[in-house]
């Protein structure tokens, strides 16, 4: 069983915060780089954030840099995306993924930032 399950999406007002969780099963996230993507209607899928296996190494899309933080909890085998100062343009379905080696994706969780 290799699976990613996202949770934590919902409705938030502009300027608010939200944290997404991605629970992994069937593999140990510490051995893999992990990423968050998002996709809004009519738009291409966008890479939002990546956490590599190198300690403390992360990368963010320019559109979210300084507002979003990707992190890991090895004990829970879970990756998180802390989203602050949310904007209406952050509205999208957010996906957790290991896209390069395992090529697995979660089911997605909807984040809606009202305008």
SSE topology:
Blueprint: E1 3-7, E2 10-12, E3 18-25, E4 34-39, E5 46-51, E6 58-60, E7 68-73, E8 78-83, E9 92-98, E10 104-105, E11 109-113
Parallel strand pairs: 2-11
Antiparallel strand pairs: 1-3, 3-8, 4-5, 4-9, 5-6, 7-8, 9-10, 9-11
Q: What would the keywords be for this entry?
A:
single chain; 115 residues; mainly beta; seven-stranded mixed sheet; four-stranded antiparallel sheet; 0% helix; globular
What does this structure look like?
There is one protein chain. This protein is mostly beta strands. The protein contains no helices and 11 strands. The protein has strands spanning 3-7, 10-12, 18-25, 34-39, 46-51, 58-60, 68-73, 78-83, 92-98, 104-105, 109-113. A hairpin with a 5-residue loop joins strand 9 and strand 10 (104-105). The protein is globular, with a radius of gyration of 13 Å. The model has no long low-confidence stretch (mean pLDDT 96).
